[in-house]
């Protein structure tokens, strides 16, 4: 790697994660980093230095490079990287190949595009039941409590075959599951993980004794050349799917509705005029409306060997942070990237990741968002905020920008 610079330091005052991120977009520092220092050495509030990648091509390359490992970030005595979400070595999001590949192959069957499309009637039914109830209400209604949270929770519950009392436990503890940098034993997120794990042990045991036509029963029965998921893998995979499968979708949906009715009401009405525009609009909302509070998916990497990205040498053992939200605002890929363009045709956003950790539930999320937005614009074309936006409350300290409530009227 002759001629490759050994370091490319970012501005001294920058400490990751930056403070200026919001659901409306990444922290403003990223625009300068993309232009001047796209592979930057920065300090993190976890106490270690890390490489921060901000340009689309570099982030996409980093997401796909197996030399940037996840398992090393959750190993004993791993460096504490600022902005990281709690995860454990047993979770699929913490694994590298071949362990990750094995689990994904066993679990991928229920999440193919064809299988997800077969869920459309059930998802439509769940959305319509919630919207029917919403339509009977007068006065301000909290859209988070009444729709954007219960809809994906019920969908993932029916998909997996999890009982309502377990879903309610997840709804309570999901706030702890997605807490940033609370990884010490006895911390809230660790307590939340333990509660969820215990609940799923009982659910998996019941499914093993009484199999049904659902994903959990399918995971229990799944085999690949004689291989199958063991008990710990089943339980961990199940609560990972529920935790990720409803909270991220619920937050993305609420944030997207807020962006449209508060800042782009003309585009909300544009969707109501022709609902065939919604699938393309969903892709643009995924790109433009920022789910990630640290502008990343919360999953840093460790270089397992020397790697060159963006003309910069990253040494083995170095921490690497990939800014997906910044990549989604790269003007070299997305013309006029800071504009919400619901008719954008070329939209290869990285909101679901890339490479081996590409989100297994991406098609389910797309379908849920499309059905939810379709139902809302059809039933409530005049939906608007019931309070000034600066009075809205957000859950703080989480990996997602997550609204505590969204009071609306129509």
The total of helices stands at 15
Name the structural class: alpha+beta
Share of helix, binned:
40-55%
Mean of residue pLDDT values:
89
In order across it, which strands form the biggest sheet? Answer: 1-2-3-9-6-4
Features:
410 residues; alpha+beta; Cytochrome p450; six-stranded mixed beta sheet; 15 helices; globular
Helix-strand layout with pairing:
Elements: E1 15-16, H1 29-36, E2 39-44, E3 49-53, H2 56-64, E4 68-69, H3 99-107, H4 113-117, H5 120-135, E5 141-142, H6 143-148, H7 150-160, H8 164-177, H9 188-209, H10 215-221, H11 231-263, H12 265-273, H13 278-288, E6 301-303, E7 307-309, E8 312-314, E9 319-322, H14 324-327, H15 362-379, E10 384-385, E11 394-395, E12 402-403, E13 407-409
Helix pairs in contact: 5-7, 5-15, 7-11, 8-9, 8-11, 9-11, 11-12, 11-15, 13-15
How does this structure look, described?
This is Cytochrome P450. Belongs to the cytochrome P450 family. Keywords: Heme, Iron, Metal-binding, Monooxygenase, Oxidoreductase. By secondary structure, this protein is of the alpha+beta class. The chain has one domain (15-409): Orthogonal Bundle (Cytochrome p450). It is 44% helix and 10% strand. It has helices at 29-36, 56-64, 99-107, 113-117, 120-135, 143-148, 150-160, 164-177, 188-209, 215-221, 231-263, 265-273, 278-288, 324-327, 362-379, and strands at 15-16, 39-44, 49-53, 68-69, 141-142, 301-303, 307-309, 312-314, 319-322, 384-385, 394-395, 402-403, 407-409. A 6-stranded mixed β-sheet has the order 1-2-3-9-6-4, with helices on one face. It has a 3-stranded antiparallel β-sheet with strand order 5-13-10. Helix 9 crosses helix 11 (231-263).
């Amino acid at each position: 790697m002759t001629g490759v610079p050994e370091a490319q330091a970012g501005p001294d005052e920058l400490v990751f994660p930056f403070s200026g991120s919001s659901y409306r977009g990444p922290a403003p520092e990223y625009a300068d980093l993309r232009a001047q220092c796209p592979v930057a050495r920065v300090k993190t509030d976890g106490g270690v230095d890390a490489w921060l990648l901000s340009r689309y091509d570099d982030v996409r390359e980093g997401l796909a490079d197996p030399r940037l490992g996840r398992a090393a970030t959750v190993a004993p005595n791993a460096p504490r990287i600022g902005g990281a979400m709690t995860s454990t070595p047993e979770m699929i999001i913490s694994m590298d190949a071949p362990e990750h590949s094995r689990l994904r192959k066993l679990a991928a069957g229920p999440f193919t595009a064809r299988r997800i499309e077969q869920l459309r009637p059930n998802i439509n039914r769940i959305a319509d039941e919630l919207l029917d109830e919403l339509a009977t209400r007068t006065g301000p209604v909290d859209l988070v409590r009444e729709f954007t949270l219960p809809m994906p929770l019920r969908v993932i519950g029916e998909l997996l075959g999890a009982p309502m009392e377990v879903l309610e436990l997840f709804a309570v503890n999901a706030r702890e599951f997605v807490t940033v940098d609370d990884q010490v034993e006895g911390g809230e997120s660790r307590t939340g993980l333990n509660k969820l794990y215990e609940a799923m042990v009982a659910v998996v045991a019941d499914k093993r004794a009484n199999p049904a036509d659902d994903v959990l029963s399918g995971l229990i029965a799944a085999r690949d050349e004689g291989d199958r998921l063991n008990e710990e893998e089943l339980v961990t995979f199940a609560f990972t799917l529920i935790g990720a499968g409803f909270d991220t979708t619920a937050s993305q949906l609420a944030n997207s509705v807020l962006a449209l009715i508060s800042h782009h009401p003309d585009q909300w009405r544009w969707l109501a005029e022709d609902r065939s525009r919604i699938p393309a609009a969903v892709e643009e909302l995924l790109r433009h409306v920022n789910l990630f509070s640290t502008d990343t998916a919360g999953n840093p990497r460790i270089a397992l060997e020397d790697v060159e990205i963006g003309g910069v040498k990253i040494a083995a053992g170095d921490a690497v942070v990939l800014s997906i939200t910044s990549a989604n605002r790269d003007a070299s890929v997305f013309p006029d990237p800071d504009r919400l363009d619901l008719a954008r045709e070329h939209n290869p956003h990285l909101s679901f990741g890339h490479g081996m950790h590409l989100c297994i539930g991406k098609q389910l999320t797309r379908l849920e968002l499309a059905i939810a937005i379709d139902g809302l614009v059809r039933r409530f074309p005049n939906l608007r905020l019931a309070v000034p936006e600066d009075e809205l409350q957000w859950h703080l300290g989480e990996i997602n920008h997550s609204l505590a409530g969204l009071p609306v009227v129509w």
